[in-house]
Amino acid sequence: MHPLIGFLIAVGLFAIGLYGVLTRRNAVLQLAAAELMLGGVHLVLVTADLVHNAYTGQSFALFIVVIAAAEVGVGLALILNLWRERATIDTDDLPEEPPADARSRR
Asked: Which pLDDT value is given to residue 56?
């Protein structure tokens, strides 16, 4: 397989993920789009590793898998907290500042 194919697929995955993060209002869909972006970076590292015959790309790819698992855990926890506070996971309705009663609870 020519390395250009891997790089083009990776760019496509990253572009689709970026589009999803910027246009989706649902927090779960934004998290899924961020995972697509992470998959694109993962593919770039593995493809570059195959081109250069080094194992550094595979090491970084393994590190990305670990980071992705942590990202999903933290992201879902934030989404659950958003659902409990607002009864919606629509990110367009999020205020820039917390409400006044939330500031007084701290």
From this structure: 82
CA distance 76 to 101: 25
Q: Phi and psi of 98, rounded to 5°?
A: -70, 155
This prediction has a pTM of 0.76
Write the DSSP assignment of the chain as a string of letters: --HHHHHHHHHHHHHHHHHHHHH--BHHHHHHHHHHHHHHHHHHHHHHHHHHT-SHHHHHHHHHHHHHHHHHHHHHHHHHHHHHHHS--BGGG--SS--HHHHHH-
Whole-number pLDDT of residue 104: 60
